[in-house]
Request: fold
Amino acid sequence: MSRVGRPPRPGPLGTLVGHWTDSIGRTGCTVVLAPAGAVGGLAVRGGAPCTRETEIFKPTRGVDPRLVHGVVLAGGSVFGLAACDGVVRWLSARGIGLQTGHACVPIVAAAGLYDLASGDPHAWPDAAAGAAACAAARAAGVDEGPVGAGC
Reply:
């Protein structure tokens, strides 16, 4: 597989933020990308956590303890976790991730947000939404307010 496009250029803190918003369905996703990798932390709250790959944040896990290339916050509850697939593929296609000798494997954690009662309960982010949020990611001038996962 060939690399697609150039890797994004991170800001001074090494991160980029991007959103995908479905204003009609009132859902979306937000990505935080760390192309060079970053050390993350996590606190899971509530009785029904909706997460993916969060074990990587534990100090006893991971190839390089807590190395993360991206974090996804997605509306759509458990259905929205599919947005993470698009983020993983987008980063891998650009050579961002762990070089295993067989594939470039990005470490991407995700959390699903329950927004099914605030909009269309059958609208949720998918892999294409995650990839679109990555393509929109930038280091500065990031949109705030009811966009992405905040929609």
The longest strand covers residues 27-39. The helical segments are 83-93, 127-135. Residues 83-93 form the longest helix (11 residues).
